[in-house]
Amino acid sequence: MANSRCANLREFRRLAGAVLLSAVGAALLGGCKGNSTAAAMVRREPVTAAPVSVPWAKGDVLHADPMSSDLWKSATIVALGAPANTEHTTLPCRAKLLVDSQHLYVAFISERADEPAGLDRDLVSLYLDNSREKDGREIVQLSAGPGGQITCNWIRAAVAAEPRPDGTPDLTHPVSMIPNWKVEGLVAAVGNGELDGKPAWTVVMAIPIDRLPLPFRTMPAMGARWKFNLMRTVMAEGDLLQANYSPVAVGAQAVSPYRMAELDIGNP
Fold this sequence. Notes:
The structure is a single chain. By secondary structure, this protein is mainly beta. 9% of the residues lie in helices and 34% in strands. The chain has a single domain, classed as Immunoglobulin-like, CATH 2.60.40. The chain has 2 helices and 13 strands; from the N terminus they run ααβββββββββββββ. Helix 1 packs antiparallel against helix 2 (19-26). It starts with a helix and ends with a strand. The relative contact order is 0.23.
């Protein structure tokens, strides 16, 4: 079983073509040699996180400190927690969300380790399905690290993935990915500060919704309902650590669209 999982993951890495995502794939459910996450496997009843209502931004929130600026005080705040299949997780991470007529803004505030992780070792991501169907066949992943580089990966499936009868993700479900999709106007602003008195790094993503790949192009509007998840992944001493808003198995969001929560755009 482990050999067949590893063969599937090698194919997934070939399609993905992204260094950190390859590391994520290699740790799917602890099925490949060298990943210690398997030691912490737990069974939890699958529970999708509660819907999130996102208020409208008032001002230049991209260049405002998400921890101290008044421009972020109205934002919705969520905490990222342990994955669905392990109690091992990252250092604390919170996220704040705002929207305007063209952008979705997501600010992550992530506690640092004693030695700050490099760009290839600490990554925060938004997974979004605001396509017309919202059935998980089209997902866009926006990711950024402490260096400020932001990327867009387009995840696709011919048929929406479903969980196995026992609730675990079907790792054999075929998905493809178009990595590093160029999105005009997609930017991130990084900074440093504290989270509950501990050193932290921050990143604010400004996501131009009308410039995303075609299935996701729309304009934010009051009452719109999208599917989303927020995630932090960290490579630490050979182990892949993950935290997420809506609990999903480690590295399995691409084949677990049903584990995404609902994002509701509020009144301007």
